[in-house]
C-alpha cells in the first residue's frame, strides 16, 4: 500500500461520519426544521454503540444501537419543537449539552477499554481493482451505507413524490398544510431520520475511527456537519464532496505534523468553518440560488389552524 | 327573455337563499345566483359586500349557515376544496399558494394524484398551457417568474383537474394590462369549450367587456342580476354602492385657510409584487378641510399612507409638503416634529405594540415630538412616568376609552377602544395635519362615531385632516372634499356636498375623469 493510498484511506475514515451526520441533517432541514443537536445525537450514538458492542460482542448490534439511540434522542427534540413548539435553536443547543453529559455517564465504565473494531467487508472482484479496490471496496459497512444514503436521499428528494412533499413543507409549511400535506408528521419523520444518521455517524466514531470510548470523542464533528449542510446548499451530492473536503482538511493536520510541515493545528481545524463562512458569503450574494435551495421555512415553528 | 325566465334546470350551478352568519353578522344574506354552462358570470361588489364569503362557500372553504347549492339541478354539499374539485369546481385565488423553491411542474404535481409521474405532468402542463395561450416552462423555478406567470401556474393547475366551473377571484388585480388581455383571451377559449367562469371583480370596464351576465352584491345581499353589456357603468355602479344617500353632516367650515398638506406628482414604485405603484398623485388639504379618499382596498391606499407619513420617504423632496415645507425625503419623526400626526391602518403591531401598556405605547409614539413633556435628563432620556400616566389618563377620558385598570396592555383592549386611544394619542397633540388610514375598520358603531366626531372637530379647529377609508358612509359623514383612489391613481377632489355614491362608484371602477361625461350621456 502506497503513501497516497494510506492518506486517502484516512481521509475516507475521517469524512464518513461528517457525510452521515450531514445527510441526515440535510433531510431534517429540507423539511424546515433546524436541529442544532447533531453533536449531542452523535455522541449519544457513539456511547451507545460502544456499550452495546462491548456487552454483546457484536459491532453490528452496536451499529443498530447507535442508530436507534440517535433516532430516539432526536424524538425528544421533535416532541419539544414540533408538538410543544419550543424554540428550535435553544432546544437544539440543549440537546447537544444534554447528549454530551449523558454520554459521559453511559461511557464511564468503558473508559480505557479497548473496543472491537468493525471489520471491513471485502467485495469480491471489485476489491481486486488496483488502487480503487482497497480504497472503496474493502471498507466497512458504515462506509457503504453512507454512500447509499447520499444516492438514496438524492433520489428521494428530487425523484419521489414523498420527497417533493418534504421540500414543499420546507419551502412553505402554510401552503403545504393547505394542500393537505401532513406537516408535523413529515417533520417528525425527517427529524428522526436526522437523528438516526447522526447516531450512525457516532457509531462509526467509536467502532471504526477510534475503536474505544473517550469522553467528548465527537470533538465538534456535529458542528462541522451542520456547517456542511449549509456549505452544500442543501444538496446531497455537494454534501458528499464537501464531507470529503472537510475530512481531508481535518485529517491533514495529522499528516502535516507527520511530514514536519509547520502549520499550526488550530489553523487547520478552523479551516472547515472558514470555508463555510466564505461559501455562505458566496451563496447569499446570489439571491436566486439562496431562494431556490434554502428551505424558506427553516427554523420557523408551524402551528396549524392559525 | 331575461335570465330569470330561463328554465332553472339549465343552470350548471344554482345557489338558493344561501346565508352565512358570523355570530349575528350576515356576511351573505339569502343569496340567489345562477350560472349557466358556457357563460362568464361576473360577481360584482365592494369590499365586504360578501363576494369572498360566497365563493368560499362554493369552494368548500366555509360551510353555509343555511340555503342550498344545486349542481346541475341536484342539491350538493361541498364540504372541502377537495370535494369542490371532485364536483367539477376549480378556483384561482387572488393570493397564490405556490412554492417558490420548486419548479412549475413540481408545484402542479403537489395538487394532483401522486400516481401520475412528474414527467407526464410536465408534459401535460406544457401542452395545456400552450393550448390556452398561457405559455409556461414546466422546468422553471417559481422564484424566477413574474406575478402574471405565477397566476398562469394557478390557472393551469386548476385546468388540469378539468373543471366545469372555474372561479377567478380578482384575477386582474395583480396583472399588467397586457397580461390581463391575454387572460381574457384564455377565458374566451374556456367559454367556447362550454366551461363556465365565475369572475369576481369590482372593475366595471372589464366586466362589461368579457362577462355575459352579472350578479351584484351589496352588504351581503343581491342588489342586481343583469346583462352587464345592456347596462351603463353608472347603473352598475349604482347597484354596487347603493343609491340611497346618507345623511351628510356638514363638516365643512366657512373659513378655509391655507394649504397645510400637499402632494405634487407623487410617484412610488411597487415595493413587492402585491403592492400597487402610485402614479402622479396630486392632492391638497387646507386648514379646516377633511379630504376623504375612497377606494376599494389594495388600490394603493397603504402605499399612499406610507409615502405621506414618511414611513417610506420618496426621492423627490417637493412631492410631499407639510405646512409649505418640502418633506418628501424626510422620515416619519421629522414630519411629526413639524406638527403632523399619523394613524396607520393596522392597530396591532403597527400603531401599537400589543404587549406593552398604553403608557409605553404613548411614549413610543411621542417621545420625539413631545420630548420635553415626556422625557427628562437631557440625552439620558429618562421617561417621566408621572407625566406619561397623566397624559394616558387624559387621552382615555377624552376619547372615552373603556379598559380594565389604569394602564393595561394595548392588546387587551377591544379593537374599537384601542383605536380610540390611538386616534386620541395623535389628537392630544393638536396636530395641524392628521393623516388617518381606515380610522374605523372593524370598530363598533359607537366607537366609530366617536372617532369620526373627533376628526371633524379637529378640522373645525383649523387643522387639515386626510382620511383614507373604504367606508362610504364614513366618508360622507366626515368629508368636506372627496377623492377616489383606483390602481394607484387619485381622482381630482370633489366637494362632498355635490358628490353622489354613483359618481364614487364610477371612479372606483376606474372611469377616471370620465365620470361626468358618462353620467351626462346616460341622462340623455
Biggest sheet details of chain B:
7 strands, mixed
Oligomer: heterodimer
User: How would you spell out the order of helices and strands of chain A?
Assistant: HHHHEHEHHHHHHHH
Number of domains of chain A: 1
Hey, roughly how much beta strand do the residues of chain A contain?
Answer: under 5%
Mean pLDDT of chain B: 85
Number of domains of chain B: 2
Q: Which regions of chain A are unreliable across 5 or more consecutive residues at pLDDT < 50?
A: none
Describe this structure in words.
Chain A: InterPro entries: ABC_transp_permease. Chain A: Keywords: Cell membrane, Membrane, Transmembrane, Transmembrane helix. The complex is a heterodimer of chains A (306) and B (524). By secondary structure, chain A is mostly helical. Chain A has one domain: Orthogonal Bundle (ABC transporter involved in vitamin B12 uptake, BtuC), CATH 1.10.3470. Helix content of chain A is 73%, strand content 1%. Chain A contains 13 helices and 2 strands; from the N terminus they run ααααβαβαααααααα. In chain A, strands 1-2 form a two-stranded antiparallel sheet. In chain A, helix 6 (141-159) crosses helix 7 (161-171), helix 6 packs antiparallel against helix 11 (236-258) and helix 11 runs antiparallel to helix 12 (265-285). In chain A, 45% of the residues are buried. Chain B is of the alpha/beta class and 524 residues long. Chain B folds into 2 domains: 3-241, 3-Layer(aba) Sandwich (Rossmann fold), CATH 3.40.50; 259-499, Rossmann fold (3-Layer(aba) Sandwich). In chain B, the strands form 5 sheets. In chain B, strands 13, 16, 19, 20, 21, 22 and 23 form a 7-stranded mixed β-sheet that branches. In chain B, strands 6-7-8-3-9-10 form a 6-stranded mixed β-sheet, with helices on both faces. Chain B has a 4-stranded antiparallel β-sheet with strand order 2-1-4-5, with helices on one face. In chain B, a hairpin with a 2-residue loop joins strand 14 and strand 15. The longest helix of chain B is centred in the middle third of the chain and has 16 residues, at 177-192. Chain B is elongated. Chain B starts with 12 loop residues before the first strand and ends with a helix. The chains are: A mainly alpha (306), B alpha/beta (524). Chain A binds chain B through residues 159, 161, 164-165, 167-168, 170-172, 174-176, 178-181, 288, 291-296, and chain B through 82, 97-102, 106, 109-111, 114, 118, 141, 143-144.
